[in-house]
Amino acid sequence: MTLTPTSYDIRPFVPGDEGGWVRCRTLAFLATQYYDDVKPRRGELDTPSIGLGAADALGHVVGVLDIEVAGTEATIDTIAVHPDHQGHGLATSLLEVALAALAETRVTTLDAWTREDVAANEWYRRNGFQERYRYLHVYLSDGDDSSGFLAPKPLSKPHAAFAHSRIDDEIELRSRYQRVHVCRQYVRDLR
Ligand SMILES: CC(C)(COP(=O)(O)OP(=O)(O)OC[C@H]1O[C@@H](n2cnc3c(N)ncnc32)[C@H](O)[C@@H]1OP(=O)(O)O)[C@@H](O)C(=O)NCCC(=O)NCCS
């Protein structure tokens, strides 16, 4: 069977989607640089944010899009398509539904933040987003030199840590730590 965006039912998130949202997001992110960014629940989005789910023919949630709205600015919190359903235009269809909803609001810019995964970066560029800013996500992991890392008493020295840094420090930080990601902000002008 050939899947097209019309094979999916794209509609607002409902509380019954919670389990499907977690499964879809977790499986989608597992193959990305956000592999350990697991959220065991979705949590509430403040009004007037937009939450969409895409269901397959069996009613399973296979795509999710959450957008937080604050005044004239909106940010993609989550865009994820179940790995078995990627490459069929589903994320693009979710975005189109969200853009139609945002057109009814005062929002003038939509942004998103992502690491170096090719699919995500290509998807944002393909959908009219332009890079505005980049910085670093740096992890202290097993095997890294933890010199300089401290914790308040009575805690031991940290075994793991996550920190931000300037893009200018990329070469030095990649030589010191095994896990360093460039994080990019993408922005789409909606006016
Ligand atoms: C990014 C993601 C949401 C795209 O979902 P999708 O439904 O497969 O995307 P669509 O079919 O709507 O978009 C297709 C376009 O995206 C880009 N794209 C998607 N997958 C790609 C891949 N594996 N390699 C390169 N480009 C890719 C291409 O530009 C493609 O256009 P094309 O078909 O003309 O080449 C999906 O890969 C995903 O869930 N990834 C994991 C979660 C994630 O990284 N989220 C965003 C970062 S926070």
Short account of what is shown:
The protein has 191 residues and is of the alpha+beta class. Helices cover 22% and strands 32% of the residues. Helix 2 (90-102) links the parallel strand 4 (73-81) and strand 5.
Helix content: 10-25%
Uncertain residue segments: none
- Relative strand content: 25-35%
Average residue-wise pLDDT: 96
Radius of gyration over alpha carbons? 19 Å
Please give the order of strands in the largest beta sheet.
Answer: 1-2-3-4-5-8-6-7
The tally of beta strands, per DSSP, is 8
Task: Give the names of the bound compounds.
Answer: coenzyme A
Biggest sheet, in brief?
8 strands, mixed
Can you offer a commentary on this structure?
With 191 residues, the chain is an alpha+beta fold. Helices cover 22% and strands 32% of the residues. The protein has an eight-stranded mixed sheet. The longest helix has 13 residues. The termini are far apart. The site of coenzyme A has 21 residues, from helix 1, strand 4, helix 2 and helix 3.
Q: What are the key terms here?
A:
191 residues; 4 helices; eight-stranded mixed beta sheet; alpha+beta; binds coenzyme A
